[in-house]
Amino acid sequence: MPFMSNTTSLTTYKIKEKLETENLNKTIIEILEKHKINENIEDSAGKLVSWTSVETPYVPNFETSSVVFGASYIFALRVDEKKIPPSLIKKYCAQEQAKRIDYKEKKFLSINEKKRIKEKVIDELNAKILPTPNVYEVVWEYEKNKLYFFTTKISANEDLESFFGKTFNLNLIRIFPYTSIFLNSHLSSSIKDNLLNSEPTNFLR
User: How far is C-alpha 182 from the geometric centre of its chain's CA atoms?
Assistant: First the structure.
């Protein structure tokens, strides 16, 4: 699991809202099941984001996999993404440009022609290359309004925030020193205003 790796980063989120449901476990499992991977659908951007099981991330089935662990919900974000090496794009673009120059008996191609060739090459490579799945664990402490995200990629945080909001209709607030201050109910409004208007200290001379 990624959270066992020394390269993993942990991001903590605050969730202010609650799900409107009488059966919380059932609702969460149904949402996860509804938005699990559908490998028959291909995203135009070459990326598919879905929920998956920690136990069986490549064949997710939330009806048989465990999601509820005590007071927490543990599942994973799966991001299937096609990555084409830039050198591969450069190689096939050069080959296509050479063919086009020979065919048209020209010395060079216009910027628009090169752009169209590059788009064509990327589309063709996307059709051939299989996406690489990446799995990142999520621990949701529902009653504490907290969610922990274990990831090896910074970009995965944006995928989580967008997909969580889309599927659960709840907003994730990333916790770092600045946001933690404003979420602290024990601080007065005047103190928060002073912090908001304070200038950063320059330690360089």
Answer: 25
Got the DSSP string for 37-100?
Answer: --TT---TTSEEEEEE-SSSTTS--TTTS--EETTEEEEEEEEEE----HHHHHHHHHHHHHHH
- Report the C-alpha gap between 88 and 55 in whole angstroms: 35
Give the DSSP H or E segment for 141. strand 132-141
The beta-carbon contacts of 94-101 under 8 Å, at least 24 apart in sequence, are: 96/120, 96/121
SS3 content of the chain, % helix, strand, coil (to 5): 40, 20, 40
What pTM was computed for the model? Answer: 0.74
Classify 85 in phi/psi space as left (phi over 0), alpha (psi -120 to 50) or beta.
beta
Residue with more model confidence, 61 or 187: 61
- Evaluate whether 129 touches 84 at the Cβ level (below 8 Å): yes
Digit-coded pLDDT (tens) for 116-151: 999 999 989 888 888 899 999 999 999 999 999 999
